[in-house]
Amino acid sequence: MIGTTTSAQAAAFAPALATWDRDAHADLRGVVVLHRGRRVAERYYNGADPDALHDIRSAGKSVTALMVGIAVDRHAIASVDDAVETYWPQSAGHPVGAVPLRNVLTMQSGLAAFDEDPASPGNEDRMDAAPDPLAFLLAVPKADPPGSRYRYNSATAYTAGVVVAKASGESMRHLAGQRLFTPLGITAWRWDADAAGMTKGQGNLWLTTRGMAGIGEMVRNGGRANGRQIVSARWVEAMLAPRVDITADDPFADAYGYFWYRKTQDIAGTMIPVSFASGNGGNKIYVVPRCDLVVAITSAAYGHGYGQRRSEAILKAVLASAVASGACRTG
């Protein structure tokens, strides 16, 4: 259960959020800050409110990683070392079928899928336009040995969602409702399916800013919320562990885990590791164990680089307030 703010706590963080009332771009939607599970700051912008649903874009990939963990916890998926074809027999004989799930989760599938290249055979826009996304995925050729190269793409996150559905025998959307959102107390949400009827593991998940914060708080607590172990602590630890150095690929992250990012922020000489989910436009779930903080941001700056820069600036302002108030542990 997420607690409410106190006036003393609010005073530490509210000024940092008020700064963005004057932002030149009218597409910031909301910021929620939790400290030890209590809302210590919350602000909405440009007509948004706590009940508004937002398409969090690729931050949904990080929720897909949680769904893989739930499938592993339920023994529907035996191991992330298993190949995709273990759970999706129709993929046998196709490049995607031979990829270990572990490499799917770290964007190292080896498939010829790269979302920054419109000509890439597995580019997300091509997949979204396909009349049969499953057939499209089966036709994506191999480019590299699995595990050898990081290439950000939505096709692999979609693959993870397909594996969850095939292994569980139900749609990922239905499983998420039963095993994730309901236990978290999240009642307002939407997760779109594609033309093949598959939940879109690559994104198109709609949540409120508070809902995003609730997911972040569960992750900060090792998969536990409302007195229940929703995702195993073992999976959360494995999911957040930095597995691939992506400093050369992403200016906003140092490393990549299982569809979650990691970056160490330097706040006035205090080094603070941050794990986060990230979506187009600046949609973020920042999890900061050293400061007992979660920062959720919704933003509609889709396709604009300033959205990512703005969200990181908001995070840094919140962390600066936390450091100044002595809320962050050092060492």
CATH homologous superfamily label of the largest domain: DD-peptidase/beta-lactamase superfamily
In the sheet with the most strands, the strands line up as: 2-1-13-12-11-10-9-8
Mean residue pLDDT: 96
Task: Indicate the CATH architecture of the largest domain.
Answer: 3-Layer(aba) Sandwich
Question: What report would you give on this structure?
Answer:
With about 325 residues, this protein is an alpha+beta fold. It has two domains: about 5-50 and about 210-325, 3-Layer(aba) Sandwich (Beta-lactamase), CATH 3.40.710.10; about 65-170, Methane Monooxygenase Hydroxylase, Chain G, domain 1 (Up-down Bundle). It is about 35% helix and about 20% strand. The protein contains ten helices and 13 strands. The strands form three sheets. Strands 2-1-13-12-11-10-9-8 form an eight-stranded antiparallel β-sheet, sandwiched between helices. Strands 3-5-4 form a three-stranded antiparallel β-sheet. The protein has a two-stranded antiparallel sheet with strand order 6-7. A hairpin with a 4-residue loop joins β12 and β13. The two termini are about 30 Å apart. The relative contact order is 0.17.
Keywords:
331 residues, Beta-lactamase, Methane Monooxygenase Hydroxylase, Chain G, domain 1, 10 helices, 13 strands, globular
Topology:
Elements lengths: L6 H12 L9 E8 L2 E7 L9 E2 L3 H15 L27 H5 L18 H6 L3 H7 L14 H15 L3 H13 L4 E3 L13 E3 L1 H12 L3 E2 L2 E2 L3 H8 L3 E2 L9 E2 L4 E7 L2 E10 L3 E6 L4 E7 L5 H20 L7
Antiparallel strand pairs: 1-2, 1-13, 3-5, 4-5, 6-7, 8-9, 9-10, 10-11, 11-12, 12-13
